[in-house]
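ok trying again, last paste got cut off:
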Amino acid sequence: MQPDTPLGNPLLDAFLASDPHDAATAATRDALIARYGFAIPDDDALDAIVAASPHGIVEIGAGTGYWARLLHDRMPGGIRAFDTDPPPSVTSAWFAGSMPWFEVRHGDETVADQAAPSTLLLVWPTRNETWGMDAAQRHHAAGGTTLVFVGEGPGGHTGDDGLHATLGELSVCAPCRYGVVSSPCICEINPRWRRVHEIMIPTWPGFGDSVRIFERVDHPRRRSRFSLRRG
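nice, full thing came through this time. structure:
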């Protein structure tokens, strides 16, 4: 499903048309998630992902394929999308019955073994599940040089402590230092990625998503195309 006509960005349009102070905002968000996805892309974020991905993009956990479709509009043929339960599968937790915006193939974190040299894209990996961490580690082990994570930082709504430790954004082990039993021990997880750029994106009230671009920690230092400042 890769139409020639650019889609535009109906999710962003719907978000901008919504009233964040409306009592029905939560229901509006849930309805838009089911049709499009959890995170709201904008032009700056999409353009930055494309600029960081000269060898194409592989997205794991693509959901409806909305981000993949908008990226395809910018780099036709340059993206492949995978999910363990591609819509309109009736067993998809959030996207059951939703028609995909892009071809989403069946695949899990093991797809990362074959992603390089493409950029690995993770958009809102499930909170407190390990597949995002596994994908990030597999991509590194397979020689991947670029990873893009879309979501919140450590302690937020996306990924688990293992993923954030792998990305080099969490160094304190909550179970060992504070006795927190609800978090995994990260003492044995070495950072495999370093953040080189961050772009803030529109978010619903109570959330704080951004697009973070990473390079592998053992990648030779070079003059980056990106600054380290936000925005």
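cool. Confidence is low (pLDDT under 50) at residues 221-231. The first strand starts at residue 57 and ends at 60.
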